Structure formats: C-alpha cells, structure tokens
Amino acid sequence: MTFHIVTLFPEFFREALACGLMGKAVEAGLAAFDFINPRDFATDRHHTVDDRPYGGGPGMVMMLGPLTAALSGIARPGPMLLLSPGGRPFDQDAARELACGPDMTLVCGRYEGIDARLADIFPLRPVSVGDFVINGGEAAALCVIEAVARLLPGFMGKTESADEESFAAGLLEYPHYTRPETFAGLPVPDILLSGDHARIAAWRREQSLAATLGARPELLPEAGLTARDVAFLREKKGPGLGRNLYTALLHGPVLNREGKTGTTSLTNLDVHDIARVSRSYGLGGYFVVTPLADQRALAEKLVSHWTRGPGAATNPDRAEALSLVCPCADLDAVVAEITRERGMRPFVAATSAKAEGPGGFTGFARLREMLAARPVLLVFGTGSGLAPEAMSLMDGFLPPIRPFDAYNHLSVRSAAAILVDRLLGDAG
Ligand SMILES: C[S@@+](CC[C@H](N)C(=O)[O-])C[C@H]1O[C@@H](n2cnc3c(N)ncnc32)[C@H](O)[C@@H]1O
Q1: Which end of the chain is less packed: N or C, by CB atoms within 10 Å?
Q2: Which of 112, 145, 109, 139 is nearest to 31 (CA)?
Q3: 249 and 382 Cβ atoms separated by less than 8 Å
Q4: Residue 370: predicted pLDDT
Q5: How far apart are the CA of 126 and the centre of ligand 1, in A?
Q6: Closest ligand 1 atom to the C-alpha of 108?
Q7: What is the pLDDT of residues 304-328, one digit of tens each?
Q8: Are strands 186-187 and 347-350 parallel, antiparallel or unpaired?
Q9: 2-160: which CATH number, 3.40.1280.10, 3.40.50.10260, 3.40.630.190, 1.10.10.60?
Q10: How far away, in angstroms, is 134 Cα from ligand 1 center?
C-alpha cells in the first residue's frame, strides 16, 4: 500500500517510519511512503506557502496554490484524509476500511490550518485523532498510518494478533504479563500459569469485559455479548452512579397555561412510568411532590396498592419500581429526606424545555462527575413547568432536550427517561 503524505516537514516521518515492524513492512514492499512537500510547488522566490487570514485574527493559513499543485500531481491518491481537530474521530473501523485500498493520501496542516476552499476542490475527508490541538497534522498522520498499516496482510508476524486486540471484538483488550513470575512482590495471576487454555480464554474474556466496563462502558451494548458475558457484567457492575441520583416530580408550585403559579393533580402514568425509569437505572429514589394533603394521600394509596396490596402479588416487577416512590409536601422536605438518608445535601438541578438558561447550564458531564461524589436531585415540573418560586431553590439547571427545534413539548415521563439516560447511559 502506498501512503502519499502531503507535508511541509517530511523529515518528521523518516525515523518513525523506518523502525520496528514498519521498517520491515517497507523492506518487504508491503508499505511505501511518497512525500509531497507543498513548498516545492510555491511559485515565489521565498517558497511561500502561507499567508494572513482574511477577516483578521492570529496566525497564518496554508495557501491554496502550493497545496492544489501538490495534490494534483498524485496520480492515484486513493481516499484523501485531511488531518484536522475539527474532523470525524478516527477509529478502528476507519482503519480497517482504508487498509483495503492500494493507496491513500494524508494532508497535514500547519499554522492555523488550511484555506477551507481546498475541500471544494478535492474530496477531502477531515479526520481528527482526538479532542486536543497539536502543532501540525504530521503526528496525527503517523497515528493513522500505523493504525492502517498494521492491518495489511503480512504486516504482523501472526495474523491472529490483530484479531485479539482492543476494538477487534468491540471490547478493550485483556491485560498481558510476561516473565518474571513475581516482580517487586507482584505475582502474575495464577490462572495464566495453569496451562488450562479454556479457563485462560474465559478469564481473558472476563478481564476484557471488566476493562471495557471500567473505561469505555458505551462500547458494551454493541459488542455482541453472550448470555455468560451479560451474567458476568451484571454481577460486576454493582449499583453504579445511579444510586446517587434522585428524581422529584413537582405538582406545585408550577406554572399553569396562563403563566400563573398553581398546583396540578397527580397523574397515575407519571407515578408509574418515572418509577419504572428510576428502578431501571438504579436510582436512589423518586419523590412525588404535592402541597395538597388529599393528593399525597392518593399517592400513598397508589403506592401501597402496588407495593403491599393486591398489585404486589399480581405484578412484583411493578412493586419493585413503585417501592422507590415517596410522596412529599415540598422540595425542602425532599432535600431534607435525601440529606438524612445520605448524610449530605443533594445538588438540586432543575429541568426545563427552555434553551436560555439563567446564568448558563450545568452540563451532563459535570453532573456525572458530581454523581460520583454526592447525591443529585433532578426536579421535573408538571403543568407548564417549574414556577419561579421553585426555580429559586435550584443549585443548577440541566440543558433542555431538543433545544433548537421549534417543537420540544415532551411529556414529563419522556423527558425524565431521556435525561436520566443522558446522565447514566445504558451501560452506566
Ligand atoms: C495548530 S493546528 C490548527 C488548529 C486550528 N486552528 C483549530 O483550532 O482547529 C495545525 C494543524 O495540526 C493538525 N492537527 C491539530 N490537532 C489535530 C487533531 N487533534 N487531529 C488531527 N489533526 C490535528 C491539523 O492538520 C491542523 O491544521
């Protein structure tokens, strides 16, 4: 396979592409590198390749003339990748696809980047190697070249090596050990010395599942798991972050359609559905909040029917979900209850459909970090949403669902399900 590398610094690559397996692949004719320096195509006396950005701002921009001439001279460029922090994240699937072709081209940016019109002239695929900025596309191109080249048939000594690696089966890889058997008092796991290949394979699978659960749980649902894998993960997972998350459904003070503060009535569906979401994601509890004593009595009756009455016998799953429901008079009582239970005041976050947040939003990543250390209460409003009296009790505000669509009027049950999933995810 030939890698055409468009770069102002061909010398950046020389050592890196000449050592180890890559060096051998070049000697064996499996990989070849063709360097094209845009500076060789500059037409002025100083070999200028960059100029100041239109519209002002810092830094310089790579000019179209030398780049266009450099790319036009490649007879068989294959897929053309533009290394860019704004590109699509590069991954193992992309590496696999590229390893099929006889050629590929990598365009390395420098300075502030490349004149954007280059993508109108050539079919460039912008790719990023991570959410960070490096000085130039060369280090990023090396990552791509290594990922693609090692998948070429014959590149690795044993063809199996690529099959057992991280991402090959949708999971991260199991840990490796080599001699000595004990180092600084740290022994190799016994199982690896047992010579029992079936048990070693089963242990490695479990290690792989545990590593993925710990570092990249979002890969698990699509990893093609067996029933045995699922049983292992179920046991391994434990309660997760969900036990620190609580939900409260506020029936007052909320806004009515005229924008006035008032109280809404209890809805059977809201009690059941949010309880089932709360149980599915392992939440700490679900508070149904109403200032009206008769409505609280109704909620108690509903809960007791499903947890202790006839409903419990006919539908034990429902009993499990409804046992999380706690009727309460107001938010202060909810906060006091969680503080008593957990020994720590919860961070109270409001949910709303409005895209403009007073003082900005508390993002999902930040709330997830908080969940690792303290309880968090998500407050959902009925009617036309939380009234200002309730808003003033909040420590933060969650970003809305579908903020930039003209219509985002979800039922509170759907909103609760979506927001809880955004916070905890399927594997969380
Ligand atoms: C200093 S960076 C330019 C950053 C650019 N001004 C921005 O803010 O997105 C110069 C060049 O490095 C390369 N580069 C930087 N970070 C990258 C990343 N994470 N993935 C791929 N290429 C990257 C690109 O080729 C880019 O044109």
Answers
A1: C
A2: 145
A3: yes
A4: 96
A5: 11
A6: 25
A7: 999 999 999 999 999 999 999 999 9
A8: unpaired
A9: 3.40.1280.10
A10: 6
